[in-house]
């Protein structure tokens, strides 16, 4: 049973892309959620008893861990699953946890052409990819394919559109198709149809979210209003004419969603910094303002250093993690952003899918690791925003902040060894106790991946397990709060409370009791380091004139779209 994807609002917007040249659904063909049976073969009854008690402000974790021990004890639960739907020990599942469907990514890479755009779509290696993503229009026109040339796949996409149209003819909509080893997920957003063909362990909900990321990335370059108007006038329009050169942006996005926890957790990763340095950098951004400047964002190696938001905007809405992920992916995939000062229109689809902001993007160091992003609603404010950058750069140079940042960038993250627990291999921690009045970005922290997860195949295998645990924790039909899972090469534990979401990976011989003891040390270490790992109290500023409250920012006039000039 699936929840429906929220539709994007329809608003009056600018038609920049055009000058340059809601969906209610039900499942068709999907399988039922996994059922857990008792010893008599009857389904276990399920109910939600609410969240566990959580860590208090002083970092006392004994009560929480005591509750966890009780829920993990063999005395109070069966080996297959708890009857109150608060915990699941997945080591006894009869359902296979790892799929073996064809050659590995390394084996495919040995026979892969120089460019995956040149792959033969009739070859076995093309079919053996872990995941395919296709984007097409309602008229069946190919727009994007992750592997292979879109023209060569036109007949395949035509079949996909025929399936969509056939189901729609019966006043229904197709959501998913399941085969023995693959899932086909369909998402329709306005005139665009997105399809994922996957043999990974990701749930339908996770794959659907990935397709939405692809859709949002396209919207970030063209806006939703422009796309809708284009297809209203010409249903068989070839959208590739407007997306020429953007394939590498979508390719990079799809590589990231498979391996970066940011996308799985819906949060941003902060660069670990001393709280005093982060506060000083925030103050510097807070003082370098100009009218109509809405967001000031400082990032280093795609990790958030600090962000400052206009006070009036923060009363209305906040910068969403999705928008920041898309913005950073655009910057990381486009080498032109490293050449100097860039001024370009960019849409933040979760903030407002029909409008552009005007983004000033500039790297502050010679190695292009520290990047400043300033977002304005005024297309004519390049020089005033550039002056803000000069003031920020001068302040960082005078106070040696850039040098301090560079020293922290010698290692992009931190080692799990800092926790001081030999059995702990990796973890992902997302705090949930965010004060509403600060409306800050959801954040998470995790250490670098170390041995035995150094190869691409091992990293994929670990994140397959994380995706599996995440899907069970957030299942729409049977959500859980605590899962202890024994895999072939490691032991994992996932735990969600009202104050945090935590996924941990241990060595394979760790017991339930041992895992709980590790959590004691890990939670206390995170509590001790939280000011270094997270932005607790983001600064704000006020500009004059302020953006009108409720407008959600952005410009909707007919200015020329300069984004594709930098691709």
In short:
With 567 residues, the chain is α+β, with helices and mostly antiparallel strands. It has helices at 16-20, 62-72, 105-110, 124-127, 154-168, 204-222, 224-233, 240-243, 247-259, 261-265, 275-287, 311-316, 321-333, 382-398, 401-408, 456-473, 512-533, and strands spanning 87-89, 131-137, 142-145, 176-178, 183-189, 192-198, 268-269, 293-300, 303-310, 342-346, 357-363, 370-376, 424-431, 443-444, 482-486, 491-496, 500-506, 540-541.
Please state how the strands of the largest beta sheet are arranged side by side.
Answer: 10-11-12-8-9-18
Percent of residues in helices: 25-40%
Rg over CA atoms, rounded to whole Å, is 24 Å
Q: Could you tell me the mean pLDDT?
A: 78
Structural class estimated from helices and strands: alpha+beta
Annotation, overall tally of beta strands: 18
| CATH architect. name of the largest domain | 2-Layer Sandwich
Give a quick account of the main beta sheet: strands, pairing sense, barrel closure: 6 strands, mixed
How far from one another are the termini? Answer: 41 Å
User: How many helices in DSSP terms?
Assistant: 17
Q: Determine the strand fraction and express it as a percent band.
A: 15-25%
Number of domains: 3
């Amino acid at each position: 049973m699936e929840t429906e994807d929220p539709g994007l609002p329809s608003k009056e917007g600018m038609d920049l892309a055009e000058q340059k040249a809601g969906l209610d659904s039900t499942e068709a063909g999907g399988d039922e959620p996994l059922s857990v049976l008792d010893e008599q073969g009857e389904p276990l009854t399920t109910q939600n008893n609410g969240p566990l008690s959580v860590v208090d402000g002083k970092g006392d974790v004994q009560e929480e861990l005591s509750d966890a021990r009780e829920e993990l004890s063999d005395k109070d639960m069966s080996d297959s699953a708890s009857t109150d739907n608060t915990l699941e020990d997945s080591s006894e599942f009869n359902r296979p946890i790892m799929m073996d469907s064809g050659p590995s990514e390394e084996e495919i890479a040995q026979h892969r052409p120089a460019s995956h755009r040149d792959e033969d779509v009739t070859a076995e290696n093309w079919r053996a990819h872990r995941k395919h993503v296709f984007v097409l229009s309602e008229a069946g026109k190919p727009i994007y394919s992750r592997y292979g040339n879109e023209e060569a796949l036109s007949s395949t996409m035509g079949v996909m559109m025929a399936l969509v149209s056939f189901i729609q003819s019966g006043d229904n909509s197709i959501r998913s198709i399941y085969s023995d080893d693959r899932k086909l997920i369909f998402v329709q957003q306005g005139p665009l149809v997105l399809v994922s063909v996957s043999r990974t362990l990701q749930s339908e909900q996770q794959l659907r979210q990935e397709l939405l990321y692809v859709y949002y990335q396209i919207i970030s370059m063209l806006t939703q209003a422009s796309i809708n108007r284009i297809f209203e006038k010409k249903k068989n329009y070839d959208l590739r004419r407007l997306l020429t050169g953007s394939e590498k942006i979508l390719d990079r996005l799809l590589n990231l969603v498979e391996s970066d926890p940011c996308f799985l957790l819906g949060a941003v990763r902060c660069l670990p910094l001393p709280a005093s340095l982060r506060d000083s950098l925030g103050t510097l951004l807070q003082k370098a303002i100009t009218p109509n400047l809405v967001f000031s964002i400082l990032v280093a190696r795609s990790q958030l250093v600090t962000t400052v938001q206009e006070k009036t905007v923060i009363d209305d809405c906040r910068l969403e993690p999705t928008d920041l992920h898309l913005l950073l992916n655009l910057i990381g995939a486009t080498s032109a952003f490293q050449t100097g000062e860039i001024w370009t229109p960019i849409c933040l689809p979760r903030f407002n899918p029909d409008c552009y902001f005007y983004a000033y993007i500039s790297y502050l160091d010679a190695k292009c690791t520290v990047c400043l992003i300033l977002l304005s609603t005024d297309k004519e404010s390049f020089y005033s925003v550039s002056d803000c950058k000069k003031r920020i750069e001068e302040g960082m140079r005078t106070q040696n902040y850039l040098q301090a940042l560079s020293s922290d960038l010698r290692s992009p993250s931190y080692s799990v060894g800092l926790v001081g627990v030999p059995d702990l291999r990796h973890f992902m921690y997302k705090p949930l106790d965010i004060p509403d009045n600060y409306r800050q970005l959801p954040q998470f922290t995790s250490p670098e991946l170390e041995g035995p997860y150094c190869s691409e195949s091992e990293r994929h295998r670990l994140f397959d397990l994380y995706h599996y645990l995440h899907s069970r924790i957030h299942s729409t039909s049977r959500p859980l709060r605590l899962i202890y899972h024994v895999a072939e090469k490691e032991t994992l534990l996932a735990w969600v409370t009202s104050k945090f979401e935590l996924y941990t990976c241990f060595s394979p011989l760790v017991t339930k009791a041992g895992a709980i003891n590790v959590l004691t040390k890990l939670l206390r270490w995170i509590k001790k380091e939280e000011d270094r790992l997270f932005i607790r109290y983001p600064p704000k500023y006020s500009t004059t004139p302020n953006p009108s409250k409720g407008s959600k920012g952005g410009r909707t006039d007919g200015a020329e779209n300069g984004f594709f000039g930098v691709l």
